[in-house]
User: Fold this.
Amino acid sequence: MKTIIFLAVFWLFNIQKAEVKTTEVKLAEEMLEHFFAEEFQKIIPLLTDNMRKVFTIKKMNEVNKSLKAQVGPLSKTSKIMEKSHEHFKIVEILCHFERGDLICRTAFNSEKLVAGWHFLPAN
Assistant:
């Protein structure tokens, strides 16, 4: 009986642990949501100063239209992976589009601001 109770508690703990999202994952998901809703103004505060210079609202709109033309609308997201590289936290979200899958990679600096953001092929 003790074994069953222990396993049940262990199982519940692991489920709760898996459902806890880091700040970076939440921000990466938020950025994707705003991007595909074309709420570009809401993305600006998430970016570093250098990213704001490069990833302007005009550029976001261009990238959005280009993605939709190539792979269609976003259907859903699934697998999320996190890793670290030097002083960056990187979040990769698998995005399923009408005509294919892409990975959205978001790099965060130590202040939890987006220092890099791009899509790459899902292999």
Remarks:
- The two ends are 46 Å apart (CA to CA).
- Helices lie at 2-19, 23-36, 49-54, 57-71.
- The longest helix spans residues 2-19.
